Amino acid sequence: MDGTPDVVVGPASPYATTADRAAMDLALAEARAALATADVPVGAVVLGPDGAVVGRGRNVREAVADPTGHAEVVALRQAAAALGRWRLDGCTLVVTLEPCLMCAGAVLQARVPRLVFGAWDEKAGACGSQWDVVRDRRALHRPEVVAGIAAAEAAELLRTFFR
Ligand SMILES: [Zn+2]
């Protein structure tokens, strides 16, 4: 199937905080909610500078027929609206699957300083798998990347969906 992620569970980064793990639980809940709309179960949450949730999103590509309707983009838009600024300084994006090219680009555009994700997507991932946009030396912004958080849960949701 076109767009099926090649999901890989890697080791969890030792740099994840308790807040990251709690936010990942919320992102997983968003991913589960996507199942009701026939969308690929990927969920995302944005934590504001004070640690509060300022954005949530899940894949809505099918639900609203939007090619850019990825969980990360939805969550980043909501966070920017909530904070009243496009620069998401001090924020953390937490997402269940390694971001694609578009979403990794959105992380850079939003100047998100910290990215936390779950499973790797070896087919379309742009944060270390197929591409490494977030660590590209040519990029104007390079976020800290914390990978492998609750990866088994994220992967299981995706595998169940595509089975
Ligand atoms: Zn994406």
Report what the structure shows.
By secondary structure, this protein is an alpha/beta fold. Helices cover 34% and strands 18% of the residues. The chain contains five helices and six strands, in the order βαββααβαββα. Strands 1, 2, 3, 4, 5 and 6 form a six-stranded mixed beta sheet that branches. Strand 4 (92-97), helix 4 and strand 5 form a beta-alpha-beta unit. The chain is globular. The N and C termini lie close together (11 Å). The site of zinc ion has 6 residues, from helix 4.
Instruction: Note poorly predicted spans.
Output: none
Number of strands: 6
Q: What small molecules accompany the polymer chains?
A: zinc ion
Average pLDDT reading: 95
| Secondary-structure content class | alpha/beta
Number of helices: 5
The helix/strand series, from N terminus to C terminus, equals EHEEHHEHEEH
The biggest beta sheet reads: 6 strands, mixed
Q: What is the overall shape?
A: globular
What does the radius of gyration come to?
A: 14 Å
Tell me roughly what share of residues is in helical segments: 25-40%
Straight-line distance between termini: 11 Å
Binned strand content: 15-25%
Protein name: tRNA-specific adenosine deaminase
Pfam families: dCMP_cyt_deam_1
Family: Belongs to the cytidine and deoxycytidylate deaminase family. ADAT2 subfamily.
Binding site for Zn(2+): 70, 100, 103
